[in-house]
Amino acid sequence: MKKKELPEELKGTLQKAKKLEWVTIIYMSTVVVLMYLVMGSSQAMKTAWLEDILSLIPTIAFLIAEKINTKGPNNTFPYGYHRVFSIAFLTGSLALFSMGLFLILDSSMSLLNMEHPTIGIMPLFGYDIWQGWVMIAVLIYSFIPAIYIGFKKLPLAKKLHNKILFTDSEAQKADYNTSFAAILGIIGIGYGLWWADAAAAIFISFSILKDGYDNLKTAVLDLMDRHPVHTENHKKDDLVLDIENFVKSWDWVKDARVRFREHGQVYFGEIAVVVHTNENLAENIEQGIKSLTEFHWKINDVTITPLPSLPKDY
Amino acid sequence: MKIFTDYLFKIISTVTFFLLLNACSDFPKDPRNSLENAKATGLKVGVALNQSFTIFEDSVLSGSEIDLIREFARRNNLDVNFTIASESELISKLEKYDLHIAAGGFSKKTIWSRKVGTTLAYDGSHVLLIPKGENALVTELERHFLKETAGK
Q1: What pTM was estimated for this model as a whole?
Q2: CA–CA distance, A89 with A108 (Å, rounded to integer)
Q3: What is the ipTM of this complex?
């Protein structure tokens, strides 16, 4: 089946992104195992651990969705499978959001109950080391490579106009915030400040909730067919305006109005035109659609409707 | 990539700063000063009688955990005061920081671990109980266990 989504020059970018996502999965799995082994009774560690597990959701969602979305349209799904990205994004963000809420409650309870985390010695390679140091070492391991991978993925996400990948790389890049909070929590415990642990956990929970909320908002707005936006700053994509001007520049078109929506990485839309003459109209429209799909790779599916006057509501 | 290295530099320098800060102090500390108090007033040990771990015969306390604690006290120049009580009494005293250690052949999966702190299993399966979060005390105790097992 013909793969209808990315142009040739972006296929390499997608391959690179996939490779980095696999690296992320392998690396994060080692982080999750190590964190579990050393977390002891620290609430901050538990929260950071859960955050790391959750951070795998967008990565896995990307890899799965990427397999499905390139399938062409068929009888059952005549618009193709582009929206699988939006659905994966919605479910991932919902998981993040609800886990954030749960963890805020859980961590606040641990603060209210005045939980004093007990952290003793961990025998390691023949040394008796305070387990707090081991936790800090694992936390450092959990964020330095993550930042690097995040930085590597970010430009790919922008090029591919892929929100899951973008969220994933942003979250990884910002992972040092939570690891850092957890490190401070553990150093606090070491200083005899038992509340530092729960306070760090609450901070981490809020950052999970914030990520969840932001992503949930984006996912819902996309599924509500809002005007397409840039992945990085949520500003309206000028491409839509460019399309309108491009269509207006055709000599058989007197006036035009366009509307587009995002279907995962690509755009679907309608163009209403008022024409100078009805002569060769069908051929002109056919040619118009062809030149539009060549205009930009994001324009995936478009219809052109000739009307006596332009619709006022879009 | 420059942004990344800048980022990394900031993080590493801050972490190193904190680590250096810690290297020169007693670490970890007890939030409720159990170890310090034990040095001043003697180690307050609560005992629940349990088979070979804690035995009370002819007004004399003995047993493997009693020996372990006595040896710990000797090495750290601490006086020891033993009191015998039921498990639940020991737990409530630990929760109020009225005891430093509770001994009674507690398993490492003890149901009390939500309410009190546990040491690592000195023989692979049994632990001593301590007030929750008293990390200087638990660290000293565990160092002692590990020395003892290394000696055997």
Answers
A1: 0.87
A2: 28
A3: 0.85
